[in-house]
């Protein structure tokens, strides 16, 4: 894991390679001054308390949470995001993490992509049904690619739902989908854990997404993980039998 670190009077700044200048700038400015220069975000596709920071290094979203006595959720999300990136998964993750001793809070900065939509926004506002069949197919296949790549790399998301999918470029051929929110990501090769990810995604989308698109997703997913649907069904059955025996 390529995670770099620098210490300041107020705490510790951890950052990804390529963001050293931004990290050093944050250290010089101080987190209090940085926060005072943020503004509200109009298209809130990130859940929770989020602000927008505009700098000479680009635009970033700022997430903050109170520090934990055990493990920082911001730091965990930061580290998991790096692991997924290194595994070739398309993610939009925290690139700089600031742990402040003074405020006993952790701050995460992630790149801001203007004009993006969350999967939840698309579903809640019934935009999905207005898409052409070819566009729906491209989105479904792209999401299946990301989920399959994450699973084959040995990770499960833990909270896979439309609100944690960021979609950009719906109006052109440069369609991109990014995975968000990695606080619940963990290493697992369990088929049952994968099924839970898939089931959670389907449950939260099935009111709008058709069964046809659901099968498109499944076929694409299985073609990448090179899995047999029967293996997944058997994994669920084995798990249910264990639960009944308790």
Draw up the topology in text.
Elements: E1 4-7, E2 11-15, H1 20-29, H2 31-36, E3 50-55, E4 58-66, H3 73-86, E5 96-100, E6 105-111, E7 117-118, H4 119-124, H5 133-152, E8 155-156, E9 165-168, E10 176-179, E11 186-187, H6 191-205, H7 211-225, H8 229-245
Antiparallel strand pairs: 1-2, 2-5, 3-4, 4-6, 5-6, 7-9, 8-11, 9-10
Helix pairs in contact: 5-7, 6-8
- What portion of residues is helical? 40-55%
How many structural domains can be distinguished in the coordinates?
2
Counted by DSSP, the helix tally is 8
Mean pLDDT: 87
Measured between the Cα atoms of the first and last residue, the distance is 39 Å
Biggest sheet strand line-up: 1-2-5-6-4-3
Spatial extent as radius of gyration: 19 Å
How is this structure best described in words?
The chain contains eight helices and eleven strands. The termini are far apart. The chain is an alpha+beta fold. Helices cover 42% and strands 20% of the residues. The protein is globular.
Describe the structure in brief.
The chain is 42% helix and 20% strand. It is α+β, with helices and mostly antiparallel strands and 246 residues long. It folds into 2 domains: 108 residues, 2-Layer Sandwich (Phosphorylase Kinase, domain 1); 129 residues, Transferase(Phosphotransferase) domain 1 (Transferase(Phosphotransferase), domain 1).
Tags for this entry?
246 residues, alpha+beta, Phosphorylase Kinase, domain 1, Transferase(Phosphotransferase), domain 1, 2 domains, six-stranded antiparallel beta sheet, three-stranded antiparallel beta sheet, 8 helices, 11 strands, 42% helix
